[in-house]
Amino acid sequence: METIEEKIARVTKEEVALAVYNPNWPQLFEKERCHLISCLPADIVKRIEHFGSTAVPGCLAKPIIDMLVEVTSLEETKKRIVPILEQQGYDYFWRPSRGNDIPPFYAWFIKRDANGKRTHHIHMVEKDFKTWDALFFRDYLIDNSDVAREYVDLKRQLAKTHTQDRVAYTMAKGEFITRITKKAIADQPA
Protein backbone atom coordinates (compact mmCIF):
# COMPACT_ATOMS: atom_id res chain seq x y z
CA MET A 1 0.00 0.00 0.00
CA GLU A 2 1.21 3.49 -0.91
CA THR A 3 2.36 5.70 1.98
CA ILE A 4 1.21 9.32 2.17
CA GLU A 5 4.77 10.43 1.34
CA GLU A 6 4.82 8.21 -1.77
CA LYS A 7 1.38 9.47 -2.79
CA ILE A 8 2.46 13.13 -2.46
CA ALA A 9 5.66 12.46 -4.40
CA ARG A 10 3.67 10.74 -7.16
CA VAL A 11 1.08 13.50 -7.63
CA THR A 12 3.52 16.41 -7.43
CA LYS A 13 5.71 14.95 -10.19
CA GLU A 14 2.88 14.50 -12.70
CA GLU A 15 3.40 16.52 -15.85
CA VAL A 16 2.33 20.15 -16.09
CA ALA A 17 0.61 20.13 -19.48
CA LEU A 18 -1.36 23.15 -20.66
CA ALA A 19 -4.24 23.10 -23.13
CA VAL A 20 -6.09 25.75 -25.10
CA TYR A 21 -9.45 26.76 -23.67
CA ASN A 22 -12.09 24.07 -24.08
CA PRO A 23 -15.69 25.38 -24.27
CA ASN A 24 -16.81 22.11 -22.63
CA TRP A 25 -15.08 22.96 -19.35
CA PRO A 26 -18.14 24.73 -17.85
CA GLN A 27 -20.27 21.65 -18.63
CA LEU A 28 -17.66 19.35 -17.05
CA PHE A 29 -17.79 21.55 -13.96
CA GLU A 30 -21.59 21.41 -13.88
CA LYS A 31 -21.65 17.64 -14.30
CA GLU A 32 -19.26 17.16 -11.38
CA ARG A 33 -21.14 19.74 -9.29
CA CYS A 34 -24.34 17.75 -9.78
CA HIS A 35 -22.53 14.53 -8.92
CA LEU A 36 -21.17 15.97 -5.67
CA ILE A 37 -24.58 17.31 -4.70
CA SER A 38 -26.12 13.91 -5.38
CA CYS A 39 -23.69 11.86 -3.29
CA LEU A 40 -22.50 14.12 -0.47
CA PRO A 41 -24.31 15.13 2.75
CA ALA A 42 -26.38 18.27 2.07
CA ASP A 43 -25.95 19.45 5.65
CA ILE A 44 -22.17 19.80 5.09
CA VAL A 45 -21.86 20.93 1.46
CA LYS A 46 -22.97 24.47 0.66
CA ARG A 47 -21.93 26.47 -2.41
CA ILE A 48 -19.79 25.00 -5.19
CA GLU A 49 -17.84 27.31 -7.52
CA HIS A 50 -15.81 26.79 -10.68
CA PHE A 51 -12.52 28.65 -10.37
CA GLY A 52 -9.00 28.56 -11.75
CA SER A 53 -8.06 28.97 -15.38
CA THR A 54 -10.66 26.53 -16.75
CA ALA A 55 -13.28 28.98 -15.44
CA VAL A 56 -11.88 31.85 -17.54
CA PRO A 57 -13.11 31.74 -21.15
CA GLY A 58 -10.21 31.74 -23.60
CA CYS A 59 -7.55 31.05 -20.95
CA LEU A 60 -4.80 28.48 -21.42
CA ALA A 61 -5.03 25.96 -18.58
CA LYS A 62 -4.08 22.58 -17.28
CA PRO A 63 -7.19 20.68 -18.48
CA ILE A 64 -8.31 20.03 -14.90
CA ILE A 65 -11.49 21.57 -13.54
CA ASP A 66 -10.82 23.38 -10.26
CA MET A 67 -13.79 23.39 -7.91
CA LEU A 68 -14.14 25.33 -4.68
CA VAL A 69 -16.63 23.76 -2.28
CA GLU A 70 -17.87 25.42 0.89
CA VAL A 71 -18.31 22.97 3.74
CA THR A 72 -19.77 23.74 7.14
CA SER A 73 -17.10 21.74 8.98
CA LEU A 74 -13.77 20.33 7.87
CA GLU A 75 -13.87 17.85 10.74
CA GLU A 76 -17.21 16.53 9.47
CA THR A 77 -15.76 16.55 5.95
CA LYS A 78 -12.99 14.20 7.11
CA LYS A 79 -15.48 11.91 8.82
CA ARG A 80 -18.34 11.88 6.32
CA ILE A 81 -17.17 13.11 2.88
CA VAL A 82 -13.67 11.66 2.59
CA PRO A 83 -14.88 8.03 2.84
CA ILE A 84 -17.52 8.60 0.15
CA LEU A 85 -15.14 10.16 -2.36
CA GLU A 86 -12.24 7.79 -1.63
CA GLN A 87 -14.59 4.85 -2.22
CA GLN A 88 -15.34 6.38 -5.64
CA GLY A 89 -11.62 6.51 -6.45
CA TYR A 90 -10.76 10.14 -5.66
CA ASP A 91 -7.30 10.82 -4.20
CA TYR A 92 -7.62 12.67 -0.88
CA PHE A 93 -5.13 14.96 0.82
CA TRP A 94 -5.30 17.00 4.02
CA ARG A 95 -3.48 19.97 2.57
CA PRO A 96 -2.08 23.27 3.88
CA SER A 97 -3.62 26.44 2.44
CA ARG A 98 -0.25 28.13 1.99
CA GLY A 99 3.25 26.69 1.84
CA ASN A 100 4.34 23.44 3.42
CA ASP A 101 2.57 22.51 6.63
CA ILE A 102 1.26 26.04 7.23
CA PRO A 103 -2.33 26.07 8.52
CA PRO A 104 -5.12 26.37 7.90
CA PHE A 105 -5.47 22.94 6.32
CA TYR A 106 -8.28 21.84 4.03
CA ALA A 107 -9.61 18.78 2.22
CA TRP A 108 -8.35 18.40 -1.36
CA PHE A 109 -9.39 15.71 -3.83
CA ILE A 110 -8.16 14.66 -7.26
CA LYS A 111 -10.64 12.97 -9.57
CA ARG A 112 -9.23 10.97 -12.48
CA ASP A 113 -10.65 9.45 -15.64
CA ALA A 114 -10.47 5.74 -16.52
CA ASN A 115 -6.91 6.24 -17.84
CA GLY A 116 -5.71 7.80 -14.59
CA LYS A 117 -5.56 11.32 -16.01
CA ARG A 118 -6.61 14.15 -13.67
CA THR A 119 -9.98 15.65 -14.54
CA HIS A 120 -10.93 17.63 -11.41
CA HIS A 121 -9.33 19.21 -8.36
CA ILE A 122 -11.84 19.68 -5.56
CA HIS A 123 -10.89 22.10 -2.79
CA MET A 124 -13.16 21.88 0.28
CA VAL A 125 -12.90 24.79 2.70
CA GLU A 126 -15.04 26.54 5.26
CA LYS A 127 -16.67 29.88 4.37
CA ASP A 128 -14.09 32.04 6.17
CA PHE A 129 -11.02 30.69 4.33
CA LYS A 130 -8.91 33.12 2.27
CA THR A 131 -9.16 30.54 -0.53
CA TRP A 132 -12.44 32.23 -1.52
CA ASP A 133 -10.37 35.22 -2.72
CA ALA A 134 -9.60 33.06 -5.77
CA LEU A 135 -13.03 34.07 -7.06
CA PHE A 136 -11.89 37.71 -7.19
CA PHE A 137 -8.91 36.59 -9.28
CA ARG A 138 -11.14 34.53 -11.59
CA ASP A 139 -13.59 37.38 -12.11
CA TYR A 140 -10.81 39.92 -12.69
CA LEU A 141 -9.31 37.76 -15.45
CA ILE A 142 -12.74 37.35 -17.03
CA ASP A 143 -13.26 41.13 -17.02
CA ASN A 144 -9.70 42.10 -18.07
CA SER A 145 -8.54 40.22 -21.15
CA ASP A 146 -5.15 42.00 -21.20
CA VAL A 147 -4.36 40.70 -17.70
CA ALA A 148 -5.63 37.24 -18.67
CA ARG A 149 -3.22 37.27 -21.65
CA GLU A 150 -0.36 38.27 -19.34
CA TYR A 151 -1.28 35.35 -17.08
CA VAL A 152 -1.36 32.94 -20.04
CA ASP A 153 2.12 34.09 -21.11
CA LEU A 154 3.43 33.52 -17.59
CA LYS A 155 1.85 30.06 -17.42
CA ARG A 156 3.33 29.09 -20.79
CA GLN A 157 6.81 30.09 -19.63
CA LEU A 158 6.46 28.32 -16.28
CA ALA A 159 5.09 25.12 -17.80
CA LYS A 160 8.28 24.87 -19.89
CA THR A 161 10.49 25.54 -16.88
CA HIS A 162 8.64 23.28 -14.42
CA THR A 163 7.27 20.50 -16.65
CA GLN A 164 7.64 17.75 -14.02
CA ASP A 165 7.23 19.86 -10.87
CA ARG A 166 3.68 20.93 -10.09
CA VAL A 167 4.68 22.51 -6.78
CA ALA A 168 7.31 24.78 -8.36
CA TYR A 169 4.91 25.67 -11.19
CA THR A 170 2.19 26.67 -8.73
CA MET A 171 4.56 28.59 -6.46
CA ALA A 172 6.04 30.50 -9.39
CA LYS A 173 2.57 31.82 -10.30
CA GLY A 174 2.03 33.00 -6.72
CA GLU A 175 3.30 36.56 -6.95
CA PHE A 176 1.19 37.29 -10.04
CA ILE A 177 -1.94 35.76 -8.51
CA THR A 178 -1.44 37.60 -5.20
CA ARG A 179 -0.87 40.95 -6.94
CA ILE A 180 -3.90 40.64 -9.21
CA THR A 181 -6.13 39.31 -6.42
CA LYS A 182 -5.25 42.32 -4.21
CA LYS A 183 -6.03 44.65 -7.11
CA ALA A 184 -9.33 42.86 -7.78
CA ILE A 185 -10.36 43.15 -4.12
CA ALA A 186 -9.29 46.82 -3.97
CA ASP A 187 -11.36 47.55 -7.09
CA GLN A 188 -14.55 46.22 -5.49
CA PRO A 189 -17.29 48.82 -5.03
CA ALA A 190 -17.57 50.05 -1.45
From TrEMBL:
It comes from the Bacteria. InterPro entries: GrpB/CoaE, NT_sf. Signal peptide: none annotated. This is GrpB family protein.
